[in-house]
Amino acid sequence: MPWIEAENYDNEQRLRQLTKEIVRLFGEWQLNFGNKAPVKNYPVQKAALWAKVILYMQPTAEQWQQAKERSLFEEWPPSSARDLLALAPVNNPCYPDMHQAYTDAAVNQKYNHAVVYETARRVGFWDLKSKPETVTYKRWQQQYPKVCYEHTTGTDFAMPQSRQITHKHIPMADDSPMAASVDAFLDKFRRKHRIKA
Question: Rounded distance, CA 36 to CA 77, Å?
Fold first, then answer.
């Protein structure tokens, strides 16, 4: 079974290479974030674990590169490999366009997809209604890709069930016990209305 040994060797090589990349990334975070990313929080063992998780999640080369670059512009460094990968945009036609989803949620309070509802929940329904777009859209841009990525990797976001009771008009039957009372009230109302006019 030499092909199994070759496959294991390839996986080990990819794991080593990715671990080295993550160690370099941890170093960049320590320079960039200062006290928010102390050296003691980023041992090589953590890089090796993150490498396993990232290999398991199989991001594209472009997603991996974008996640690494975007991590430098966050307020805090990502706390897990999953959070790191969530920074990469998910190019999935199943999800609504980011700006259109924001407009639907913030302006129209319309949630056409579970990821739109979940992002609105994370940004804050009240904030979306009451704060300016300059504030809320920036937060939307941070959360929406994360929510889409989580959804892509299997997290299920449920839309709330509407509890509104639908109105059904049922006309009153002529033989109803209330029919005589209603007719008397309407006759009285009509007489008062004619006198005032």
Answer: 8
